[in-house]
């Protein structure tokens, strides 16, 4: 490990940093992690990470060798399974269980590995997430059914975006507009029992940047102001695109099909909220590519958050209860 050349070490650090960034690691954790690795490799280092750029400055103790690497990168996706695998490899290296060359080869395998969940399973997860969110809102089985169907249609656009850069750039407002138009058509011609705005929200719930916004606020709290501000503003812009896409889509739908008189359906029983939590957390395991060995903790965290929120709301204001959850 210590006998590796400076070139091998700095190439490894740059590769590791870009991979961790790609998998959605927040800036403060990423910089601290890379600095720990560099120190282990007997190197001095400084890193500046943001959602759209990475800067690596690496040098030896006596400044015999120095290296600076700056790159423009795309904001990372949330690939929790690959992130966990990468962290495990680095920890094994830091504990002396693996050499730098072994870890470097394993990083290539992780980088080239396909999605552990196939397209069919991912599509089912998308549909389940939309239906489960509608169920969590306690509306009706009509809303649950149509929310799941529209979310699956949204997933077809997600698949299209992987083949078309134009679709990828306008994906969020596009799916919001399409979902809203289809919801208006369904309410007029098929099912007047649906809550249009709720099923549109349910159909695009997977795009709501809750995790990204939480990471941005965490970065701001850790005094990583540039990265935190950029991530928070990106989250707000995504919310704006979804909101205005849904607003425009509903306006187009009403103009094309008119408005049907809403027929109040039977509400869901209260116990379905707990089923919704299970289904929603299970679907997010697939969407975020979480490893199956972490699935239990992922589902448990959803139940803990929801249960704490409901329990706190009995003694505090409802909003404060949600905050505690």
**Strands across the major sheet, in which order?**
1-2-3
Number of domains: 2
**Inertia-based shape:** elongated
What are the secondary-structure elements, in order, as H or E? HHEEEHHHHHHHHHHHH
How many strand segments? 3
Using only CA atoms, what is the Rg? 23 Å
For the report, how would you describe the main beta sheet? Answer: 3 strands, antiparallel
Strand-residue proportion? 5-15%
Helix content: 55-70%
Mean pLDDT: 88
Please tell me about this protein's structure.
67% of the residues lie in helices and 6% in strands. The model has no long low-confidence stretch (mean pLDDT 88). It is elongated, with a radius of gyration of 23 Å. The two termini are 45 Å apart. The chain folds into 2 domains: 6-112, no CATH class; 119-290, no CATH class. A hairpin with a 6-residue loop joins strand 2 (53-59) and strand 3. Helix 6 packs antiparallel against helix 8, helix 8 (171-189) packs antiparallel against helix 9 and helix 13 runs antiparallel to helix 14 (318-324). The chain is mainly alpha-helical. The chain has 14 helices and 3 strands.
Describe the secondary structure blueprint for this structure:
Layout: H1 6-22, H2 27-40, E1 44-50, E2 53-59, E3 66-72, H3 80-94, H4 100-112, H5 119-136, H6 141-161, H7 165-169, H8 171-189, H9 196-203, H10 210-221, H11 225-257, H12 272-287, H13 295-313, H14 318-324
Antiparallel strand pairs: 1-2, 2-3
């Amino acid at each position: 490990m210590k006998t590796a050349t400076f070139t091998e070490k700095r190439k490894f650090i740059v590769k590791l940093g870009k991979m961790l960034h790609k998998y959605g690691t927040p800036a403060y954790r990423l910089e601290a992690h890379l600095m720990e690795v560099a120190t282990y490799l007997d190197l001095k280092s400084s890193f500046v990470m943001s959602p759209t750029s990475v800067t690596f400055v690496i040098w030896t103790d006596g400044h015999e060798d120095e290296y600076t690497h700056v790159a423009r990168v795309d904001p990372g996706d949330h690939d929790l399974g690959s992130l966990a695998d990468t962290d495990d490899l680095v920890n094994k290296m830091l504990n002396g269980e693996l050499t730098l060359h072994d870890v470097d080869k394993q990083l290539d395998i992780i980088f080239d590995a396909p999605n552990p969940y196939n397209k069919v399973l991912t599509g089912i997860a998308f549909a389940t997430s939309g239906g489960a969110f509608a169920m969590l809102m306690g509306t009706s089985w009509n809303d649950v059914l149509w929310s799941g169907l529209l979310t699956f249609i949204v997933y077809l656009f997600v698949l299209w975006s992987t083949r078309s850069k134009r679709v990828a750039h306008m994906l969020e407002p596009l799916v919001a507009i399409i979902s809203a138009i289809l919801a208006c058509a369904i309410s007029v011609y098929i099912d007047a029992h649906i809550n249009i705005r709720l099923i549109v929200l349910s159909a695009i719930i997977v795009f709501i940047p809750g995790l990204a916004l939480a990471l941005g606020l965490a970065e701001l709290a850790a005094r990583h102001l540039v990265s935190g501000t950029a991530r928070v503003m990106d989250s707000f812009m995504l919310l704006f695109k979804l909101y205005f896409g849904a607003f425009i889509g509903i306006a187009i739908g009403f103009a094309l099909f008119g408005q049907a008189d809403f027929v109040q359906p039977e509400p869901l029983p209260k116990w379905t909220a707990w089923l919704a939590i299970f289904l929603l957390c299970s679907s997010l395991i697939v969407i975020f590519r979480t490893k199956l060995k972490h699935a239990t903790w992922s589902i448990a965290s959803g139940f803990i958050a929801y249960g704490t929120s409901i329990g706190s709301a009995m003694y505090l204001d409802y909003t404060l209860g949600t905050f505690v959850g």
